[in-house]
Amino acid sequence: SYVLTQPPSVSVAPGQTARITCGGNNIGSNSVHWYQQKPGQAPVLVVHDDSDRPSGIPERISGSNSGNTATLAISRVEAGDEADYYCQVWDSSSDHWVFGGGTKLTVL
Amino acid sequence: QVQLEESGGGVVQPGRSLRISCAASGFTFSDYAMHWVRQAPGKGLEWVAVISYDDRDKYYADSVKGRFTISRDNSKNTLYLEMSSLRGEDTAVYYCARDYIAGAGTSPSYFDYWGQGTLVTVSS
Fold it and tell me: For position A1, what pLDDT does the model report?
């Protein structure tokens, strides 16, 4: 089955840009979606179809996808951005939905 | 507004069965495919199962195939997950999530709304 690889943790100072990667074999040919999950809460969709934001998601959050890596970028990071972030694709070979292992974003 | 509310979780012994539910409101339930996604304590998200809007197509993760059954009642706006032969590794918070489209397993899709989850603990 298709495997998505994320770094376990990313740390960034307030005001800087955080970049969270999601690696997969030729992931650039898939649509990648990203979710934010804060402690004790349900996940929230923050980016779909590589780079589209649902309504209510700030423009500071953006996504890109090419080759073997998709990236979620959060600019002007704030304390409120501390959360776990998960990438997700649909695997056409199995009709399964696949998540990356998740990345914990820490704001220093 | 879209609301999804899970219920039915609890403590169950290994090998036993449990059914959890998800009540939907704020949208036309019968227009959307629906999923179950779980999260073991301190772990990441794992997709469990999906059902198409019309109940015709269902797909399961390999880890639950043959033990779990997803179903829906569009007249009651409710999604179900019947879990049997439960194991310790099934212990998790179970979330229901709405697919942004109607079909299941027919095209790339994502989860646009999630419930708050219900905790299932498998323990003797």
Answer: 86
